[in-house]
Design a protein that fits this description.
- The chain has 244 residues and is mostly beta strands.
- It has one domain (12-240): Jelly Rolls (Sandwich), CATH 2.60.120.
- It has strands at 12-19, 25-34, 44-53, 59-69, 77-85, 110-112, 121-127, 133-140, 145-153, 158-168, 178-188, 193-194, 198-203, 215-219, 222-226, 238-240.
- The radius of gyration is 17 Å and the shape is globular.
Length: 244
């Protein structure tokens, strides 16, 4: 497939969803490694996504924390922690606290962050002691530096619907870029840790503007997401992460 994605927002995205879906989580984390520097200036976004839900399962909104290749920031490198209210609440962009990180374009959600390739970064989302506040953190596992990106404000008591994804605004035939995700973890409200035994892959359909040459596979327990490559995984295919 060649040329830009034909979707309304000009992007092609593909996901790996925690299966079976977790419930009653107070925190979720995943480790991201970017293996290639994109060779074009188009936006690339790699993120972990969660929903904010009430005790009865009502979804109030969702957030995504991850790294970006973004020409609006120094050396095209940034971190983003933002989200949206549910559509029945208006679908507006969630508000949040000020970030300690600078932002070259003064974007409250997207901040300057000098990530490196082949370096593991842990993305963490956790509820705070204040109702409706969700802290987003990034940990450089090489240097052990912990940065609190900011706190998002959204009603809800728990985290649900965890996923990791790639969203690319480049042409479908732009040079291939790969990232890997590992160590998907959740913490229940009682402190116990859980992890998904598998994920299921979803791809933005071509009829909705998605590229048909993206792929998600699991190798050695790691989720590998790649652009401009042969697709070997079928939509909604389950990919085993751990021994059951």
């Amino acid at each position: 497939m060649t040329g830009p994605p034909a979707s309304p927002n000009g992007a092609s995205s593909f996901h790996a969803w925690w299966e079976p879906p977790p419930t009653g989580l107070a925190a979720v984390s995943a480790v991201l490694e970017i293996h290639d520097v994109p060779l074009v200036n188009s936006l690339y976004f790699w993120a972990m996504q969660v929903d904010f839900v009430g005790a009865d399962g009502t979804q109030f909104g969702g957030g995504h924390i991850g790294l970006q290749w973004n020409k609006a920031h120094p050396a095209n490198r940034a971190v983003n922690w933002g989200g949206y209210a549910s559509q029945y609440l208006g679908g507006h962009v969630l508000t949040g606290s000020d970030s300690p990180l600078p932002s070259a374009n003064q974007d409250p959600n997207t901040r300057d962050y000098m990530w490196k390739i082949n370096t593991p970064y842990q993305m963490v989302v956790a509820r705070t002691d204040m109702p409706g506040e969700w802290q987003g953190m990034i940990v450089d596992l090489e240097t052990e530096e912990i940065v609190t990106v900011r706190t998002l404000y959204c009603e809800g008591s728990y985290l649900a619907a965890a996923a990791v994804w790639t969203e690319v605004f480049a042409d479908c035939d732009a040079p291939s870029v790969s990232v890997s995700w590992s160590n998907l973890r959740g913490q229940l409200v009682d402190g116990r840790e859980v992890e998904p035994p598998m994920v299921f892959a979803s791809f933005q359909p071509t009829e909705k503007g998605g590229c048909d040459n993206t792929n998600t596979v699991v190798e050695g327990g790691r989720i590998l997401q790649t652009t401009n490559t042969e697709r070997t995984t079928q939509p909604d295919q389950k990919l085993k992460l751990t021994e059951l």
